Amino acid sequence: MPIITLQYEDLESLTRSDKDTIIDRVPMIGADIERIEKESIDIEFFPDRPDLYSVEGVARAMRGFMNIDIGLCQYDVTPSDITIELDDQIENVRPVLGCAVVRGINFTSSSIKSLMDLQESLHWGLGRNRKKVSIGVHDMASITPPFKYQAVDPDYKFVPLDFTEPMTMDEILVEHPKGIRFADILEGMEKYPLITDSKENVLSFPPIINGTLTRVEESTTDLFIDVTGLGDAVYTALNIVVTALAERGGKVESVKIIHPDGTEKITPDMTARDLKLPRSEIDSLIGVELTNKEIINELERMGFGASLSDDGENFDIMVPSYRADILHNFDVIEDIAIGYGFDKIQSKFPKNATIGSAHPISLTRGAMREIMVSLGYSEVMPFTLTSQKVHFEWMGREETDDVTFVLHPISEDQTMVRTTILPNLIEIFSLNQHHELPQRIFEVGEVVVNAKNRLHLSAASIHAQANFTEIREVLDAVMRERDIQYEVTESTDPAFIEGRRADIIVDGKKVGVMGELYPGVIVNFGLGQPIVAFEIDMTE
């Protein structure tokens, strides 16, 4: 789940409250406080609330929850004469586009970081690592509308962000770090998507990288935002970004998108969605009978517009355009319960009493957690579903025949059940590059090998001085605390550097591997620092 870093100065200013009150109340809206620092706080939010992936979104939610500013947040969108035209070939490449202009922003280093972090979190949460949604943010000072969204040949050249020399789009995919990481999204395409202005300046090569010309800096005041993708999640992401900037005083302007057949679409559309909620459903699900006034009050505290229907049996709800998580009535009822307070809902003992004891696996898990935490490692709990690309290709490993596949995967990122934990840990490093190094994490969790569950422990450390000796010392400590005798032999695991890797042997049987990760593996995950790691099977 995403962990968002919130600077106290921003949080207090946007919320109009003090940090101690906010810290005390924020867990009640469905968040876990990860760590409290001197200047900031790290908070983990559920993936279904991408509108909370920024300090602006959190501040908006907390203003309502703390009765500072309740009800539906209204954002004005001013029509503009800015247009972007789609060519007839883009339909087969990356067809869905949403755009907006936001003017009058006073950026600081922290607000720029907040915007970039929001962008990357949305790429992960809504975009499935940019496959379904990718976002480009551009300084308007260096570009001239109207714009064009087109499909071009791979030999088209421009200067990508963070580089100084022109590169072809094919070169970007094999030489630029972002290109290397996301090249698979465009695999098999004969033409690539490109956004340019009226002077042929490149804004964006979605979903890979922006042009260097439109870099956002503290002097930037006006932004052009493009969101491309494959479906309606594009418009939700656009609304989340635009409303976050509007929270900082930005003035939102619409953009006219002209399709090849002459049809037009105006974005962003921040019209609230209407929903009718029966009173009977609320009472049965929450288990607490609230008055009509209380229900309306809790809905308004959670950012909805709400009123009682003329029939007196239903509520007319207005759902904000940035709430991607509201799919049906139960989602709204959950927000009513959050607004009311789960701590106010009386708990009841079950009618039948039972006596239980800890499972041996639970005892092993607890012991391993205690050991790893004492060694300075932080526990993580990633998903057990993954993809062949991450699990095998990015790790440089050959696909094995002991994999359990998902029959009907919901996305390309969740096609199989993991057989090892280590790829998940490296993914977490890639999602937390905004945090200081060193980072040391571990998980003791289940994998599935040959359709059977097994308990694995994996740990990884990333920093400039990471080396084999470091991870060997950690493994020594773990095995000593568990009173396990082991030895090491030369390994052939391609995920690690030859000569700096070893198989872990217990009672003559291989139970794991450790070493320094191969540089190509590190680059595949978009990282740039050495990583050392181990993984062992703790089942027996």
From TrEMBL:
It is found in: Cytoplasm. It is an enzyme of class 6 (ligase). Its cofactor is Mg(2+). Its main location: cytoplasm. It catalyses: tRNA(Phe) + L-phenylalanine + ATP = L-phenylalanyl-tRNA(Phe) + AMP + diphosphate + H(+). SUPFAM superfamilies: Class II aaRS and biotin synthetases, Putative DNA-binding domain. GO terms for cellular component: phenylalanine-tRNA ligase complex. Residues 270-347 form the B5 domain. InterPro entries: aa-tRNA-synth_II/BPL/LPL (IPR045864), B3/B4_tRNA-bd (IPR005146), DNA-bd_dom_put_sf (IPR009061), Phe-tRNA-ligase_IIc_bsu (IPR045060), Phe-tRNA-synth_IIc_bsu_arc_euk (IPR004531), Phe-tRNA_synthase-like_B3/B4 (IPR020825), Phe_tRNA_ligase_beta2_arc (IPR022918), PheRS_beta_core (IPR041616). Transmembrane segments: none annotated. Its EC number is 6.1.1.20. GO terms for molecular function: ATP binding; magnesium ion binding; phenylalanine-tRNA ligase activity; RNA binding. Keywords: Aminoacyl-tRNA synthetase, ATP-binding, Cytoplasm, Ligase, Magnesium, Metal-binding, Nucleotide-binding, Protein biosynthesis. GO terms for biological process: phenylalanyl-tRNA aminoacylation. Pfam families: B3_4, B5, tRNA_synthFbeta. Mg(2+) binds at residues 325, 331, 334-335. NCBIfam families: pheT_arch. Tetramer of two alpha and two beta subunits. Belongs to the phenylalanyl-tRNA synthetase beta subunit family. Type 2 subfamily. This is Phenylalanine--tRNA ligase beta subunit. The lineage of its organism: Archaea, Methanobacteriati, Methanobacteriota, Stenosarchaea group, Methanomicrobia.
